[in-house]
Structures are given as C-alpha cells and as structure tokens.
Write a structure and sequence with these properties.
By secondary structure, chain A is mainly alpha-helical. Chain A has three domains: 49 residues, no CATH class; 56 residues; 208 residues, Orthogonal Bundle (MetI-like fold), CATH 1.10.3720.10. Chain A contains eleven helices and two strands, in the order ααββααααααααα. A two-stranded antiparallel ribbon of chain A has the order 1-2. In chain A, helix 6 packs across helix 7. Chain A is globular, with a radius of gyration of 26 Å. By secondary structure, chain B is of the alpha/beta class. In chain B, 36% of the residues lie in helices and 24% in strands. Chain B has eight helices and ten strands. In chain B, helix 2 crosses helix 3. At the A-B interface, helix 8 and helix 9 of A face strand 6 and helix 2 of B.
Chain lengths: 332, 264
C-alpha cells in the first residue's frame, strides 16, 4: 500500500505538490479541523458544567482535574512496577542465600501481592471480555448457521432467542454466581471464580446478536448458488464451508461487532458486581473509597472504557476487512 | 439412427399456490440422442426453464418421468451439468477455483492433484479463459463469466449439458462470440446439449432440432423442427442462405402466428 494514498496523508501530500489547493484545504478542515473543533467545544462545556456541580466528594472533575488523575494513576503504576521489581529481587536474593546454606532447599517463588494498577485492570478486563466473547462466538456461529439453513430449526430456536436477548446481565449474574460456585469446586482453581462469573455473564449476553445475524447471513445464499451446490452434489459440510460461510461472512461480522460492543458494556457492570479485577471493579472501588480524587479517577476510567471499546470495534473492522472477499464494499 | 440417450415421457408438473395447484407442464414427450444439440424455444413464462430444471433434477415432475441412459432421474447430479442464466459463479472464488470446486467434487478419487490441475486449465483454455483464470467474477465481463460457467459445466464431463438461456444477458457481439465458441467445442466434444433460448437466430444456428413450446399454463411441446444444415455452420454464409431463412421463418411463424401471446 502506498502511504501517500492514506486518507490522512493524501491531502497534505497533494497540498505540498500544489494539486487542487482549495479542495485539499477543505478536506483537511473536514477531516481534522472539525473533529478538533467538536472536541474543544465539548471540553469547554464539560469544564463549564463541572464547575457548577458540587458533590459530597467535592467539585465534579473537569478536564484538567481528570487529566491530573490520569497522570497520578500513571505515576502510581510506575511506583508499583518499581516495588514489584524490588520484591522479586529481594526474593531471589533470599532464596540464593538459603540455597547456599542448604543445597537441598527448593525455593518457592511467591507472586507479588500488591493491588493491581489501573493499567493492569484494563488488561484484566480485556482478557475477561475476550474470553467471554470468543467462547460466545464459538457457540453462536454454529447455531446461527444451523438455524439459518433449516427453517424448522429456526422456528424451534427463534422464540428462545427473542426471550433471552433482552435480558439484562445483572439478572443473569446472581444465577451464574451460584451455579459457578456449585459446579466449579476444585482445590487448585486455575480460574478465579469472580473471573468465571463475569466471563459467563458476558457470554450469555453477547450470544444473541451473533446468532441472529449469522442466521440472516446464511439466508442470503441465493437459490442459484444452492442449485450449483445441488448439481455438484456437495456434501453438507462442503456446502457450508464453500458456499454458506463465505456468503454469510458480512452479516456474521455485523453480529460479531454488535456482540463485542455489548460484551464490553456488560463486562463493566459484571465486574462491579462480581468484584472481578478490571475496570468495573476499579470504578466501584473508587466510588466506595470516596476520596476527593475518586470522581476524577472514575472519569479517567469512563474515558478509558470508551477508548478501549472504540479500539475493540476498530479491531473487528480490520479483521472483517481482512476476511471479506468483496473488497469493493466500503466497510465502516 | 443411434440409441435414445435422454427420454422425457409424459412429463407434467404442478406447483402448489395459495389458490390451489397451478399446472405448468402437461404431457411433455421428447427423445434425445447422444450428441444432439436441442434448443427449447417459446414465449417467456411457458415453462421452458421448468423442463430444464426437471431434467436437471432440481424439480420433481408431478407425473411422468425422465430417463437418462435408461436410469431414472430423481435428483440433481454432475452428469447433468447446468449452465445457469446468470452464470452463478461463486463470487469469492477465482475462475480457476470455481472450476476447481466442480472438478474436485466429480473427480475426487479418479484424478491426481496434477491431473486435476491440468484438466481445469484445459477446460478454461477451451472457452478461451486461460488468460484470466485467476481473476474473480467481479473482475471480468459478463461474457467472460458465462465462459467460466461453461468451462465449469464442461469440466464435470457431463452426459448432457443443460443451458438455461446462457447468452440471454449478453450484448449481441459477445453473444455471437460465445455462440461460435460453443459450436467449436460442440464439434470437438460432441456433447449432448439442451439449451433454452429466446433468440430465433441462435436456435437455428446452433441446433440439430428446435423444440417449440406452446404457451402456458399447462404448456407442452407444440412442434419440433429438424434443422438440416451442414456442420460447421458459418453465421455469415448462412445469413443469405434460403434454407436457413426458411427454418428461421418456420420458428417465427410458430411463435408469432400459432402461439401468439395475447396477455403481455
């Protein structure tokens, strides 16, 4: 790909070589100037409104206060990283000394036990949301294909989908919690229960759009292509793999993107209630903490949740572009 | 006279509608020999495509039946390859891969990988598509798509080739090119072909026999015209040929006098 053709670069390049100056300036204003103007107006209103809201935890954080908290969170993370490094160094040193005294001593490496930093919480949230989403997709896509292919299966499953689709994650969570603690009984838990609770809640909420859209995508296979498949006597599996799947990929991805969006929204709520480390728990802990910095930190989390959600959606879009066969369609 | 290859006996079909069954075909009888080129002509909506779909096995006749080499036709299969009206190529596969899908299916075990590759390329060469075989359908013209569709059908090595208005959506020049290609291939391979067409010239130029159908509902075969013109046929030479023009006017007379369509 030619970097000079990228939509962000092209107008500047053309401006430099003097091609259609006025048109390029217009497109630069539209592409960069207008979004920045919008952002500035928003910050202005935010600052203005914030200065008039007084809560029991002090004044509502404006952009400046929020930015300060972001920096302080970063500093805390750096400090923790340093502590962690020192902890492991001390541990290694101690173990080395003991081995020197007693060569048979087998050292146990202990993990650092300090609270996770803000940025670690983002990482934990991402792991939880992706596990739930991937598991849900692995279940939803086959179901979508089967009910898309058979109108009988569709008639049987559709009422269930319609009933479960609008259920709020908060309604599922108590049930999931009880079931997980009853079923998942081991002495050496690989997974934290709180993690499983939030993951399954995410899974239950993000199955439905993928199922519905995959089924709709399967229905876009034209009679012509079905005839081709019949004349060739393709087996059921080859028919699905060679004809149905490629045909339904655009709709399937629409479903996956909606699902991932829902998954991310649900996750924050699930983490709050399940006390699973992540952004949701961070927000909840700050709320309970109730210091004068808490609202600013929650505001940082809110913006971060938005940014991560946006990046997840873009990621899906890139994946969709990579696997879609019809490059003439503009995806956005 | 050679043996009967394909035989339609008293074929009739009804489709269920909310207003009760709708009869499309009644008592269609036709015998076709190996290597014959048959055109089905008739006004639109008369059930030509239905006949073809019954032979293909995509529809099941309500009464009567179809025998291919003495065996009853009751499901679709690659020995009755279909060239569809709107090419029906898989849009996400290249020309080569579209033919490959058919070849892989038909010669699953009987050809090695290199034999398959050779056979795919051979068939694409037959339809003059070897220069663009790694292009996807949306990158080639309508005529080229239809060529690939024909290559896919030929590659199945069918006992009979069924063509549903294969050139109907093409412009006149492209159509003429493809007709010439088809005649050339037909001369080499001596396939049995049933082709649906709206085009009187196409029917006379290509066919050994023209089957003219009456108007629906309950359509049937009205007349069968044997085209006794020597092969190979040359469209330019035939343009002024009195025999050719006689056949042409026979078909036109059938369509516009005997089976004049009243309700358009």
């Amino acid at each position: 790909m030619n970097p000079l053709k990228w939509s962000l670069v092209e107008p500047f390049y053309k401006l430099m070589i003097g091609e259609d100056r006025k048109g390029q300036l217009n497109s630069i204003i539209k592409m960069i100037g207008l979004p920045i103007t919008g952002l500035l107006i928003f910050l202005f209103i935010w600052q203005g409104a914030a200065s008039h809201i007084h809560t029991s935890l002090g004044q509502f954080p404006g952009p400046v206060k929020t930015y300060e908290q972001f920096i302080s969170l970063q500093e805390e993370a750096e400090a923790t990283a340093l502590k962690q490094k020192k902890f492991y160094e001390r541990q290694a040193k101690r173990n080395a000394q003991r081995i020197e005294k007693d060569p048979d001593f087998v050292p146990i490496i202990r993990d650092y036990t300090g609270p996770p930093t803000f940025f670690e919480q983002i990482g934990r949230s991402l792991v939880t949301v992706m596990s739930g989403f991937i598991l849900a997709s692995l279940i939803a896509i086959p179901i979508g294909i089967v009910i898309g292919l058979s109108s009988n299966a569709y008639a049987a499953v559709n009422p269930l989908i319609q009933i479960f689709k609008p259920v709020s994650p908060l309604a599922w969570l108590p049930l999931v919690t009880m079931v997980v603690s009853a079923v998942y009984v081991t002495d050496d838990p690989t997974f934290d229960k709180a993690f499983l609770n939030s993951m399954f809640t995410v899974l239950l909420c993000c199955l439905w759009p993928t199922i519905i859209n995959t089924a709709a995508g399967v229905a876009t296979v034209t009679q012509d292509l079905k005839n081709v498949s019949q004349v060739l006597r393709l087996s059921w599996w080859t028919h699905v793999r060679k004809i149905v799947l490629p045909c339904s990929i655009p709709m399937m991805f629409t479903g996956l993107r909606i699902s991932l969006g829902i998954a991310w929204m649900v996750l924050i709520a699930a983490e709050m209630l399940a006390q699973n480390p992540g952004l949701g728990k961070f927000v909840w802990d700050e709320f309970q903490n109730g210091s004068s910095n808490s609202l600013g930190r929650i505001m940082v989390a809110v913006i971060m949740i938005g940014i991560v959600g946006f990046i997840l959606d873009r990621g899906m879009l890139i994946l969709q572009k990579a696997v879609s066969w019809d490059k003439s369609v503009t995806l956005r | 006279m050679s043996e009967v290859h394909l035989e339609l006996t008293n074929v009739g079909i009804e489709f269920p509608t909310p207003k009760g069954p709708f009869r499309v075909l009644e008592k269609v009888n036709l015998k076709i020999e190996q290597g014959e080129f048959i055109s089905l002509i008739g006004h639109s909506g008369c059930g030509k495509s239905t006949v073809l779909n019954i032979v293909a096995g995509l529809y099941e006749a309500t009464e009567g039946g179809v025998l291919l080499d003495g065996r009853e036709v009751n499901e679709p299969g690659p020995e009755r390859a279909v060239v569809f009206q709107n090419h029906s190529l898989l849009p996400w596969l290249t020309a080569y891969e579209n033919v490959e899908l058919a070849v892989d299916q038909v010669f699953k075990k009987s050809k090695t990988a290199s034999e398959k590759k050779e056979w795919i390329e051979h068939n694409l060469k037959l339809v003059h598509m070897d220069h663009a075989m790694h292009k996807r359908p949306d990158e080639i013209s309508g005529g080229m798509k239809q060529r690939v569709g024909i290559a896919r059908a030929l590659a199945m090595q069918p006992k009979i080739m069924l063509m549903d208005e294969p050139f109907g959506a093409l412009d006149a020049l492209t159509r003429a090119h493809l007709q010439d290609s088809l005649m050339e291939i037909q001369k080499d391979l001596n396939n049995t072909v049933i082709m649906i067409t709206h085009d009187v010239d196409e029917a006379v130029l290509l066919s050994d026999r023209i089957v003219m159908m009456t108007n629906g509902p309950a359509a049937s075969i009205g007349e069968i015209l044997k085209v006794d013109l020597p092969q190979p046929r040359d469209r330019l030479a035939l343009a002024d040929d009195p025999t050719y023009n006689h056949y042409r006017s026979e078909v036109l007379r059938f369509l516009y006098e005997k089976q004049r369509k009243v309700n358009h």
